[in-house]
Design a protein that fits this description.
Strand order of the largest sheet of chain A: 1-2
Radius of gyration of chain A: 20 Å
Helix content of chain C: 40-55%
CATH superfamily of the largest domain in chain C: P-loop containing nucleotide triphosphate hydrolases
Distance between the termini of chain A: 60 Å
Oligomer: heterotrimer
Chains: A mainly alpha (344), B alpha/beta (592), C alpha/beta (247)
CATH class of the largest domain in chain C: Alpha Beta
Number of helices of chain A: 14
Strand content of chain C: 25-35%
Structural class of chain A: mainly alpha
CATH architecture of the largest domain in chain C: 3-Layer(aba) Sandwich
Shape of chain A: globular
Largest interface: A-B, 49 and 55 residues
Strand order of the largest sheet of chain C: 6-7-8-3-9-10
Number of domains of chain C: 2
Number of domains of chain A: 1
Mean pLDDT of chain C: 85
């Protein structure tokens, strides 16, 4: 019985992280139709950027953000070449060049001089957030109108490239970061660390935040509208490109938050994110890539299945987690078969 | 039909590939590269059929290579079987795995399908790396080489021939398959299942077939790989490899058999260059080739989403004249019940509800033998829904539909067409990148017998010639012979509708259902169409049509049924309908 | 036709193709300020294609100017910003969102205070929408959805409203309602470009009309004159018109 409780606790802690990632995946898919395979890279980037900053060094990701900003700026200029005007130019310059440059400058000047966890977290989030934003601008915005399949393959390409950069920036060695809190509570027989409490709290807060954002702000509603009906959204003047960038920004920040939450309790390698992301992905698929609450519940389930199978059949942990998806996909397909347009 | 002249490029290609190892001074390293290209090309070819032609995206093909490789690895090392004996077993195991996974996978719809393949691809990879008898992460080594008599294919130069013979043979078989009755069924899949099923194609079976075919090709590649490397471990059968195979197919041109081979060449060579030169440029920092590879993937999708092969063939202007089908070959008429009762089709209180909306509300009417009946009504009156109820596309919420006095209940579209009811669609459903002839021949699907295996080995030619002859005859009948070899997508919309009529006629139907056949036709063309339909009626066929052009309908129809808001408001001869006050009101609306 | 200086929308020599198939072949059209113009024609004539291309949903070869600005290369969103608005054939509502959310999003591009005034105006125009403002758009009946689509379009205070088959699949009494509203719009200074198969009703409300067949305009002129044309009476107003006028 005690073992069961321990496993359940473990499962819920992992599940909370998968829930965050699953929610981000659902968000991105709904708004852009991109199945975000590189979500896992946002996790590693967030975690390892934070760990690197905590050890007093400047992470390579800050420079990557600057480089991607330059490419994005070039694309903006190219796309707007027929109707260039000062306002457009200024806006593009501010977002693509000034913003990442400022973050890099700040990172460089602060690295090693201070050890405030909050500052490091803020820097990590802004670095990964800009990378997410530019990733959409560079890789997906030009092909936003193509099929889910083409977007999916592009997404795989992004995953490969980002993972490669991850190895360059962080090396093959695993890293850990400082915990948010060293507190420990005991509710017999379970032991709660401050970190695990933080995981629960942040997950709940983020979910609540997303709910408020989508339910009560015009921007959030515009994002939802894009997800519900792309053409309808464009017809009222919502720029789907902008919606896509916002969705990627949110997803990358959520990914980075997850990474920062787990790096104090697990050693993360440059390629660990992929597997973590995939499990969030299993949850997102169980949620049908549309439902937020279902995804969150599914994530807790995935986390628990993982915890139990790693105890009872540790060799086949991954096999079990990934096979879990198949019957769910089948049920979903049978429940909602693809309908062909056949109007009267 | 592929005439000898069309095989020449393939023979030329085979000869060039056979000559390469004999070029003096050929570096052995290049031969290894070509071996790898051939191995990838086999998998990619399967993906071309599966993804490019059939529209089923799989990220999991590497797992099937694994089945092929591990089967021979276990059987040759643990049980000492001869590699030649394990070849059929490897293919069989891949095939059986494909049946098991395919039964689940092909039922997945939309983007669930590629996601499903990622999931089982990953699951199988972890399974390979955890199973004791497969050697876990270390895999199995000491696999014997292929041998013919005393020739042991140990070096890359000798297995080269085995690999490339397999590639050329598989390319031929695949092309044969695509150019056949079964091939047309497969090519129709990507455009959705409604049109294919309306002509009797069992779409789930066709999907499963391509799934198995692609898996067997991957299994063959895996078998060759195991004897080439003389070892098997999980890494080459993981998710990354599965992604790479799909990439190869997309780069080459996912719709083209030779695109698979070209894509394999491009990607394998590119990776080699990246792996050997990048570290020199960047002083061996990290996994740079993955970065460049990923970036190239994204860039390629943005610049050339259809792949290199179609781009290449568009720039090399060589067109081969297609052989015209011999129209003297006759296809026996479809077996049909004698027309004893005069009532061909009886719709009795048919009803269809979508959520709270009643699209068809207790509609009753019939179609007699040798009669043209028109179904008219404002947009949204439920006319196309009625068509879909009769043809089994939709299941009715109530009422009965009988054909020749027999209730057809909720028959599938495939069962309905077997009864001799064929149809056209309001929104044209042709395969745009197939010729008019090939599109029309889909209509004769049920009148041919040749299966996939017969087609691959060209044992279907007599059957095929008759099908094409029938198709050509119907094209001639509707007056489109001049466009017989044109791609269906290049025709004007009005002509595409006529192609659909020819396709429906290929069924040899007793009842023809036409959904707005005259839309998009010019005046003269409308008259020709009306004459054709009268001829068909006088020849014993019945026609039920939905049409908006009142002049056309009033001249042609024997009887008219008027629907409004899903309800029948009138039925009678054109004269009676013209004078009916309810009809006038429905058409003019309350504002008049 | 001689577009005066007040031409709001002017399309010149428009060609629109789906792949190799040309659906619209070299048509020219203009809409003046405070004018209701209708395009009538059979299914598949190219009417919807033309509207979608003017909105920027489909690519178009030819010139399109709107309020003096060349908009042929602009994205949909920029055309919306210029004051052009389309209520498409399938309405494209945000089904899983409430009526009020749909309307608020219609005013996505305009200032908050102005949006509030717009909302009052739309609710005054369609009181039924106000009654059900918390309801999800997907649960509305066909007629209410059409009202919502028009309401959402009006929220952005467009200069030209393009309506694609607003009467499609609606009961006659509701069609009458919709057309009455279109008439009221003109009074409030919005121009309307109306595509309709219900030629009878369209011609009754429009100032001018174009008749489209197989991707080309075969006739245009004042709505009264078009309605009186014998060819039009026979093909588009339906047999009932002939019979009715013959009685």
């Amino acid at each position: 019985m005690t073992i069961m409780l321990f496993l359940l606790q473990d499962g819920i802690t992992n599940g909370a992280i998968y829930a965050l990632l699953g929610l981000a995946l659902v968000l991105v898919f709904a708004v852009t139709r991109v199945i975000l395979i590189p979500q896992g890279e946002f996790v590693t980037y967030g975690a390892l950027t934070y760990a690197t900053l905590s050890s007093g060094q400047v992470p390579g990701t800050a420079r990557l953000a600057v480089a991607m900003g330059i490419v994005a700026f070039g694309l903006d200029l190219f796309a707007g070449r027929r109707s260039l005007h000062a306002a457009l130019l200024g806006r593009a310059f501010a977002i693509n060049i000034l913003l990442p440059a400022a973050i890099l400058a700040l990172t460089t000047s602060l690295a090693g001089r201070q050890h405030l966890i909050a500052v490091n977290i803020a820097l990590s989030l802004s670095i990964v957030g800009t990378i997410g934003l530019f990733l959409y601008r560079i890789a997906f915005q030009p092909i936003a109108h193509t099929s889910v399949l083409v977007l999916l393959i592009a997404s795989v390409g992004c995953h490969l490239a980002l993972q490669g950069f991850g190895l360059v920036f962080f090396g093959a060695e695993g890293q850990r970061g400082p915990a948010l809190s060293d507190a420990v509570f005991t509710v017999d027989p379970l032991r709660f660390t401050g970190q695990s409490i933080a995981i629960y709290a942040v997950t709940v807060a983020l979910i609540a935040g997303l709910w408020l954002f989508f339910g009560f702000t015009l921007t959030g509603k515009a994002l939802r509208a894009t997800a519900v009906n792309r053409l309808g959204a464009r017809l009222v003047g919502i720029r789907t490109a902008l919606s896509g960038q916002i969705a990627f920004l949110l997803a990358s920040v959520i990914g980075a938050v997850s990474g920062i939450l787990i790096v104090p309790i697990t050693t993360l390698y440059y390629d660990t994110g992929f597997l973590i992301g995939l499990k969030g992905f299993v949850a997102a698929i169980i949620g049908g890539l549309v439902s937020y609450p279902l995804t969150a519940i599914a994530a807790l389930l995935v986390g628990s299945v993982e915890a139990f199978s790693s105890f009872y059949a540790s060799n086949f942990k991954e096999v079990i987690v990934f096979t879990l998806i198949i019957p769910v996909l089948l049920l979903r397909s049978l429940a909602a078969p693809a309908v062909e347009e056949e109007k009267d | 039909m592929i005439a000898m002249a069309q095989r020449l490029p393939i023979i030329g290609f085979a000869l060039v590939m056979a000559a390469i190892p004999f070029i003096p001074g050929m570096p052995p390293f290049w031969i290894v590269l070509l071996d790898n290209i051939g191995l990838s090309a086999l998998v990619a070819m399967g993906l071309v059929l599966l993804t490019g032609v059939g529209g089923l995206t799989s990220f999991g093909q590497a797992a099937f290579c694994g089945f092929g490789a591990y089967t021979t690895a276990v059987l040759t090392t643990t049980y000492g079987l001869s590699p030649w004996l394990t070849l059929p077993l490897s293919l069989l195991v891949s095939g059986i795995a494909a049946v098991a996974l395919g039964l689940v996978t092909v039922r997945l719809s939309g983007h669930y399908l590629p996601l499903g393949t990622i999931a089982w691809g990953l699951g199988l990879f972890y399974l390979f790396s955890k199973l004791e008898f497969l050697g876990r992460n270390d895999g199995i080594s000491g696999i014997p080489p292929l041998a013919i008599g005393g020739l042991r294919m140990i070096d890359p130069g000798s297995i080269y021939f085995a690999i490339w013979i397999a590639v050329v043979l598989c390319a031929l078989l695949t092309m044969n398959l695509l150019d056949s009755r079964t091939g047309r069924a497969i090519r129709a899949l990507r455009r959705g299942h409604v049109a294919a099923e309306a002509f009797g194609i069992q779409t789930p079976r066709a999907k499963l077939l391509v799934f198995i075919y692609a898996a067997v090709l991957a299994g063959l590649s895996g078998w060759l790989y195991a004897h080439f490397q003389r070892a098997a471990n999980p890494t080459p059968f993981g998710a990354q490899a599965g992604i790479e195979y799909l990439f190869i197919a997309v780069v080459g041109g996912a719709g083209y058999v030779w695109g698979g081979v070209l894509g394999a060449a491009i990607v394998v060579i590119l990776k080699e260059i990246l792996q050997s030169y990048l570290p020199l440029v960047f002083h061996g920092e990290g996994q740079l080739e993955t970065i460049v590879f990923g970036i190239l993937l994204v860039a390629l999708l943005q610049l050339a989403p259809t792949g290199v092969w179609p781009w290449l063939t568009a720039h090399i202007p060589f067109r081969l004249n297609r052989k015209r089908p011999d129209t003297s070959l006759a296809l026996p008429p479809r077996a049909r019940a004698a027309l004893t009762p005069d009532v061909l089709l009886q719709v009795d209180h048919a009803r269809k509800q979508f959520g709270g909306v009643i699209a068809v509300n207790d509609v009753s009417f019939d179609v007699q033998a040798r009669e043209i009946v028109a179904l008219i009504g404002p947009n949204g009156a439920g006319k196309s829904t009625t068509f879909n109820l009769i043809t089994g596309v939709l299941t009715s919420s109530g009422g009965t539909i009988s054909v020749l006095g027999r209730k057809i209940g909720n028959a599938t579209p495939q069962q309905v067409v077997k009864l001799g009811i064929s149809r056209t669609f309001q929104h044209v459903k042709l395969v745009p990148d197939m010729t008019v002839l090939e599109n029309v021949a889909i209509g004769a699907h049920l009148r041919g017998q040749a299966g996939a295996l017969a087609s691959m080995f060209r044992l279907d030619r007599a059957d095929e010639a008759k099908l094409l002859a029938e198709a050509a005859r119907q094209i001639e009948r509707v007056g489109l012979t001049a466009h017989i070899d044109a791609l269906a997508g290049s025709l004007a919309l009005g002509q595409q509708r006529i192609v659909e009529i020819a396709r429906a006629l290929c069924v040899d139907p007793m009842l023809l259902l036409l959904d707005e056949p005259a839309a998009g036709l010019r005046h003269l063309e409308k008259q020709q169409l009306a004459n054709l339909l009268r001829q068909l009626r006088d020849g014993g066929m019945s026609v039920l049509l939905v049409e908006h052009d009142m002049g056309f309908v009033m001249d042609l129809a024997d009887r008219i049924v008027v629907l409004d808001f899903g309800t029948k408001i009138a039925e009678g001869t054109p004269e009676a309908i013209k004078a009916n006050p309810d009809v006038i009101r429905a058409y003019l609306g309350a504002v008049a | 036709m001689n577009p005066g200086p007040s031409a709001l929308l002017q399309v010149t020599g428009a060609h629109i193709a789906y792949g190799k198939v040309e659906a619209v072949r070299g048509v020219s059209l203009d809409v003046a300020e405070n004018e209701i113009v209708t395009i009538i024609g059979a299914n598949g004539a190219g009417k919807t294609t033309l509207l979608n291309a003017v909105m920027g949903i489909l690519p178009l070869k030819g010139r399109v100017t709107f309020a003096g600005q060349d908009i042929a290369r602009l994205e949909i969103e920029d055309r919306v910003a210029a004051g052009l608005c389309l209520v498409p054939e399938h309405r494209e509502l945000f089904g899983a969102m409430s009526i009020e959310d749909n309307l608020q999003l219609g005013a996505f591009r305009i200032a908050k205070a102005e949006a509030a005034r717009s909302l009052e105006r739309v609710y005054a125009l369609f009181p039924r929408l106000k009654e059900r403002r918390r309801q999800l758009a997907a649960t509305l009946s066909g007629g209410e959805q059409q009202m919502l689509a028009m309401g959402r379009a009006l929220m952005g205070a467009p200069k030209l409203l393009m309506l694609d088959e607003p009467s499609l699949g609606l009961a006659p009494i509701i069609v009458a309602d919709i057309f009455r509203t279109i008439g009221e719009l003109r009074a409030s200074g919005v121009s309307v470009l109306l595509v309709e198969q219900n030629a009878q009703a369209a011609l009754q409300f429009a100032n001018r009309a174009y008749v489209m067949e197989l991707g080309e305009f075969i006739l245009d002129g004042p709505a009264k004159a078009v309605a009186a044309d014998a060819r039009i009476a026979a093909s588009y107003l339906g047999f009932a018109q002939n019979e009715a006028s013959g009685i």
